[in-house]
């Protein structure tokens, strides 16, 4: 019988090669030839799945969330992560997270001129914002947050905070520890009482918030 080919696996293999090159050299280093060499396959094999460099980049842009989702899940292996765990997972605190951030930034520049990639960014950010907002709303309803917190607006502020802090860590003018401390400082300002600070890590979970968003 002929060997069965897992086409989605092949596409993911190529996307992973794109991400590795982008982390090291930016998207300017990504070409069909370079990706083929990085993936250990022929250029013709790459072209079998992607007719052009643009098609390849657009597909790779859809795979950027994988590393973040893995870090969020790993934050609390014995339970569901809370909002603080989610925010910290977005920071480039280790080599893998740093590479993910570098790749995301490279694609962000590309998105400014590519509406399809820009759409992927908007969709991903919107989903993340909605999850954080749902987690915050549940914690506010439980009395863990100050009553004046506006969950949708606060979610936007928190994601903007970690985005800026992530860039600061990448550029070296904040350490990872300093970035986490600033996240904690902000969360403490919206906590209803010092004794209820645990809501940020073990209150409404990512999974349960997603079910209600």
What keyword list fits this structure?
HTH-type_TetR-like_transc_reg, DNA-binding, transcription regulation, 2 domains, Arc Repressor Mutant, subunit A, 213 residues, mainly alpha, 12 helices, TetR/AcrR family transcriptional regulator, Tetracycline Repressor, domain 2
List the helices and strands and how they pair.
Elements: H1 7-25, H2 32-39, H3 43-49, H4 53-61, H5 66-75, H6 83-89, H7 95-111, H8 115-141, H9 151-171, H10 176-189, H11 199-202, H12 206-212
Helix pairs in contact: 1-2, 1-4, 1-7, 2-3, 5-6, 7-8, 8-9, 8-12, 9-10
| Distinct helical segment count | 12
Note the main sheet: none
Report the top-level CATH class of the largest domain.
Mainly Alpha
- What does the radius of gyration come to? 19 Å
Helix content: over 70%
Examine the coordinates and then state which fold CATH places here, giving the name of the CATH topology of the largest domain. Answer: Tetracycline Repressor, domain 2
The class by helix and strand makeup works out as: mainly alpha
The number of distinct structural domains comes to: 2
């Amino acid at each position: 019988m002929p060997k069965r080919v897992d086409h989605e696996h092949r596409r993911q293999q190529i996307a992973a090669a794109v991400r590795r090159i982008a982390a090291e050299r930016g998207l300017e280093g990504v070409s069909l030839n370079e990706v083929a060499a990085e993936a250990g396959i022929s250029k013709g094999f790459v072209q079998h799945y992607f007719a052009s460099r643009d098609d390849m980049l657009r597909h790779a842009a859809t795979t950027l969330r994988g590393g973040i989702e893995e870090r969020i899940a790993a934050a609390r292996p014995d339970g569901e992560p809370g909002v603080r765990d989610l925010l910290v997972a977005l920071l480039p605190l280790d080599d893998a997270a740093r590479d993910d951030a570098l790749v995301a930034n490279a694609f962000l520049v590309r998105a400014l001129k590519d509406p399809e990639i820009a759409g992927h960014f908007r969709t991903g950010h919107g989903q993340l914002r909605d999850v954080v907002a749902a987690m915050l709303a549940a914690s506010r309803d439980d009395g863990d947050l100050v009553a004046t917190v506006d969950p949708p607006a606060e979610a936007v502020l928190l994601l903007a905070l970690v985005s800026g802090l992530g860039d600061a860590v990448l550029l070296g003018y904040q350490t990872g520890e300093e970035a986490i401390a600033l996240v904690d400082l902000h969360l403490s300002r919206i906590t209803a009482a010092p004794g209820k600070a645990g809501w940020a890590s073990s209150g409404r979970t990512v999974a349960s918030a997603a079910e209600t968003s």
